[in-house]
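worker-03 picked up job from queue 'complexes'. Input manifest follows; two sequence lines, order preserved.
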Amino acid sequence: MISYIIRRFLYAIPILIGVNILTFVLFFIINSPDDMARMQLGQKHVTQQAIDNWKQQHGYDVPLLWNAKAQAEEKLTKTIFYQKSVGLFLFRFGTSDSGRNIGADIKERALPSLAVALPTLILGLIIDICVALMVVLFRGSKLELGGMVVCVILMSVSSLFYIIGGQFVIAKVLRWVPISGYDEGFAAVKFIILPVLIGVFSGLGSGVRWYRTLFLEEVEKDYVRTARAKGLTETQTLFRHVLPNAMIPILTGVVVVLPMLFMGSLIMESFFSIPGLGSYTIDAINSQDFAIVRAMVFLGSVLYVIGLLLTDISYTLVDPRVRLS
Amino acid sequence: MLFRNVSIFFALFLTACDLNQINNPYPKDQDGQAILYQSFDERPKHLDPAIAYSENEYAFIAQIYEPPFQYHYLKRPYQLIPLTATKMPNIQYVNKQGEKLDANADIKDIAYTDYIIDIKPNIRYQPHPALAKTANGDFAFHHLSKDQIVSLNTLTDFNATGTRELVAEDYVYQIKRLAHPKTQSPIAEMMKNYIVGFGEFSEKVKQLSKTAIKDVPMSGVMAINRYQYRIRINGKYPQFMYWLGMMFFAPMPWEADAFYNQPGLSDKNITLDWFPIGTGAYLLAENNPNRRMILEKNPNFHLEAYPSEGEPEDKQKGLLNDAGKPLPFIDKVIFMLEKETIPYWTKFLQGYFDASGIASDNFDQAVQFTGSGGARLTETMQKKGIQLQTTVETSSFYMGFNMLDATVGGYTEQARKLRQAISIAVDYEEFISIFMNERGLAAQGVLPPGIFGYEEGKVGINPYIYEWLNDKSQRKKVAVARQLMKAAGYDNGIDPKTKQALILYFDTTSTSIDDRPRMSWYRKQFEKLGVKLVIRATDYNRFQDKMRKGNAQIFVWGWNADYPDPENFFFLLYGGNSKVKFGGENASNYQNPAFDRLFEDMRNRDNSPQRFQLIQQMQETVRHDAPWIFGFHPKRFSLSHSWYKNRKTHAMANNELKYQRLDTAARTQKRQGWNQPIFWPLLLVGVLFILILIFAVNAVRSRTRKILQ
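worker-03 finished. Artifact:
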């Protein structure tokens, strides 16, 4: 398995280089280093000299991908792409174009993102599975039909509506929790209750429908019939036999998103003033801070690769028949 | 055991929350303290006074840094007064030979102007590790080892702080910092034109590190003694006084650069750009731009008293009740990051923010207009004791014509009439009403109210666009505009070259769906004249590029004053500032030699009847040429709670927090009254949940029985 993991990591290198090139090209198609300088220097009294100074200070005064005027290997190394990309592979994110250390910012923002995303995932998973099992229990009945209609309605509503509605009812009218904000340690609990509840509720419709499908596939299998024939109740059958066997797709679905939890949720964090990573990237795009955009896209792709790898490994853990080679 | 743990957890949780005010976003120990709660929606990019230039950056640094002069908090029109200076500067004019000239010397004879500034003794910097010294008198943290830096995460991790007296050399040092190319000050290129030796200094130090400039002299700037320094500028530039009231000219101790430029500290985000060091009323105690920023009272703040003079109505408004009392009144200011308007507005209504602006979504909830057009608070707001303050900002927004364009540009009578016709048709009163909730004043010329040269009433109207009827200005009828179109050669809007409706192009960065109504409105304004307006929406960078190259035809632009002087507005139309030719701020590329002559004469004069006359001539010239459709001057509407005292909106100053006061007892009482939680729905939900559970259990049992049978 170790050789498999190493091989997968080696495969990841060209993928990450590709992602890096793509981000670089897409970013610089839209923004030239001059545009970036203007954005950072503000709108007043910006002269070409000031722009040139900024570019020189931030390393944007060399060609983008190929330096024809340089000698030998410097044709490649004396370019914005090379100089800004090498550090990434060593997880040295450098400083943002506005001068802050990106690594320090990411470290600081990852925890609040996780504080909201992890409870949302766990609580959502438990509730989705329980409701899905209940629905499966009543399969073929009007209760199931009603349940599915409710699920479709829940899925059809925008998450923004849940956020605004939740804030209005729970925080403004009933005044149970602060409407937004964040604090450190235990004091953070009162701030994350509402976003977690809204996160769980907004994912309920799709989650229940997905798990219901998984369980329905399982309940038709022979071993379930055998279990019933042994005289087990429907509840016992569902919880003791169907649930463990449906764990493979559930687990793989969960494991793949685990690393991405660090990346946070853009809308949720923005509405609840959670100082996470969700809004970090979009703020950087708006302010044309290429250093942050590049770092966040790179981090996102690394986490995604890790997520896929963990999924493969988790297969072997939940299903002994699967072997990685 | 599990039940016990859960019970303890909930007990702890409920205790921590305080059931009386369960929605309080702040810790309980802050109740009753003189803490002002404000918000910010975008983190400041810079807090270094040599670099910061935006309003959201000044909101912080203006409380921390102190330039030699400041604006009087209460007096209007805006007036500069000494801050750390003992008096207003001694201004001396000098000729080319270096001889002193009289105060009323001819501008042509003035080669240089010297500003000699005396600062108050015994002003001390905030406690800061950069100034900490060991028992031997060496700086404690100027030579940090790698190991020491590893253990540091923020400025508060340093175990000692120090202070020292503010000296004239600190002001000189800051001007050198402005000139250093590595500082990247936004005003550096401009100051090269004014401060003697600025450009040469910049060239000389460009290869040196930021810490190596202290002993390099700048010919035009020098400390005469410990408390006096001189700045020599080229020619006469009276507006330089206003620059001396801006943060760019605040003092900086050289120790700050020596401390912050140690390798490794910037990796921890410990930089001068993030941790200021000033002499002002507040110091930045916590800097977490991702969540909150906290200002605390500077224990070393020098004696400064609340003003005892203001406008006539200030006494009646209670704004002089604290006259003569030492500043500041508020102990701490907490700025919370709040990006969305809904939670921001809700927190304000719950009393968790002390003041608020008004977003368009909430405007009708907060403000209504009387029959005479005056704004007043709605009953709900009045019941809460909320106060409304309005002020016209020192800003101008306009629709510009590119004067280099073959159709709308140029100085022929035909082109002029076309622009004047469009200026009549584009009804900015309607725009303000529809899109700005009446928060604007239709502009009659270049200058906003409050700026020297601005005229109100009949004499102040733009006679080409408005007429004076029933004691107020009224936009001329569209029929007049159509007549002008006919005279311009576009009868009924028909382009004689194509025999079809004249097509004009509007370049904009407004690309979102929310902008569509506004774009549609613009189209309709042009349709009044039979002209077809094509909207060319593009991203910000492409738009800027078009403007630089002169490829835009019609556009919308704005200007926020740096200082309250007409020069800071008229320079936007000065030919020497043409965007296409010189990369300046004249986005319309307007170049009228007569106007330029008037501007050159006006800009260096002190305010006087002659200057006033020149300004009126300039207004007349641009109104006639119409390179802009004078749009509007925005009105700022701000709300504050009844417990927030001494609040007076100031369009130029940003250091207002030191004057303001809180009645914390009233705040605590009102917050408690407004934030009692409603628990009965929780009970209802609980009962409902139990009923559903019972129903589900029964249903499962009966189904299981059925299956078994």
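worker-03 released lock.
Chain B touches chain A through 64 residues (CB under 8 Å).
The two ends of chain B are 41 Å apart (CA to CA).
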